[in-house]
Amino acid sequence: GDQWWASIALAPIGSTEAPPTEMSLAKGLPDAALDRIANFHAKAQDVSSRSFLRLQKTLFAEQERETLIHLREAKSIELVLKQGDRLFDPAEWARRWQSRGRPVYVQVLLEAAQSEINAFDLGIAFDLTAPPVRSWLQDRIALWSTLVNEETGRLIAQEVAAGREAGESIPQIQTRISNVFAVAQGYRAERIARTETQGASNRAALEAYQQSEVVQEKRWLSTLDERTRPFHLEAHGQTVPLDQPFEVGGELIMHPGEGSPGNSINCRCSLAPVVRTGRRAIISHNGREPSRVA
Question: Which long-range contacts (CB under 8 A, 24 or more apart) does 42-47 make?
Fold first, then answer.
């Protein structure tokens, strides 16, 4: 039969009969159980995103200070334009961010993986040095540091050009730059923190399932409310082998928080493990007797 593993003080969900089709497990699982799992992940992500948000705001604040210093030193808008990337060099900032961001990414990965291991009684010690984990970590940090700084550089260049066109003084352009970073330390930082911790948390879950060697499939869980994008609602309950991608909005992605901006930014979806076993299994959660919900 199939054993569906759910968390939250959480209660594993079992079935004593083999399903007639691959998707029958998803169809037969109570909505309340899926909601509990999704809520569990959402609360865990809220906690992990706080550290990332603090880092992101700190990095933007440092950039604002240095950019305004360079602008004051330039003394004229013509000199600012001649200096080019000296005012704000996206590549240089990306290099600086990578060392600053790594400890926070590692923290999110470890905490999310341990949460999955505890919640689903996977019985393993998460290996952060495993090649797939190391490769993902390196690539994700590079992507975050590059894309965010390229966008900030674009916004700054846009404001400098607008200020020059309007014949503004250096102090007026400084105000424009400060406005760019006010938005960056507000909504942008929150969006980046949510998106990055979501991606890292779901990657940690996937890697924990793979390292356990007992989980064979993964299930997409969406937050079922009016804020969720339609194609993520359609993906709710989709179940695939661990090494195969989900099809979401016409895109193939391995887990929530991955893929194009339309799929990844502000995504609140999560993963849950499915294990197929030839015997009836009852799995306790944190030493408690599980309650059967299916």
Answer: 42/223, 42/268, 42/270, 44/111, 44/112, 44/115, 44/201, 45/194, 45/197, 45/198, 45/201, 45/268, 45/270, 47/111
Tokens of 123: 């019985």
Phi-psi label, residue 66: left if phi above 0, alpha if psi -120 to 50, beta otherwise: alpha
Count of CB atoms situated within 10 Å of the CB of 289: 9
DSSP string of 250-280, one letter each residue: TEEESSTT-SSHHHHTT---EEEEEEE-SS-
- φ, ψ of residue 58 in degrees (nearest 5): -65, -45
Would you tell me how many other CB atoms lie within 10 Å of the CB of residue 9? Answer: 12
Instruction: Tell me if residue 119 falls in helix, strand or coil.
Output: helix
Q: What is the pLDDT along the chain (294 residues), one digit of tens a residue?
A: 333 333 333 333 333 333 323 322 333 445 565 666 666 666 767 777 899 999 999 999 999 999 999 888 877 777 776 666 678 999 999 999 999 999 999 999 999 999 889 888 899 999 999 999 999 999 999 999 999 999 999 999 999 999 989 999 999 999 999 999 999 999 999 999 999 999 999 999 999 999 999 999 999 998 888 888 999 989 988 999 999 999 999 999 999 999 999 999 989 899 989 886 543 332 323 333 333 222
Q: CA 154, 157, 162: angle at the middle one, nearest 5?
A: 125
CB 137 within 8 A of CB 105: yes
Yes or no: say if 94 and 149 are a contact pair by the CB < 8 Å rule: yes
Cβ atoms of 209 and 116 within 8 Å: the answer is yes
Q: At residue 28, what is the residue type?
A: G
Contact assessment for residue 50 and residue 136, using Cβ atoms and an 8 Å cutoff = no
CB 204 within 8 A of CB 116: yes
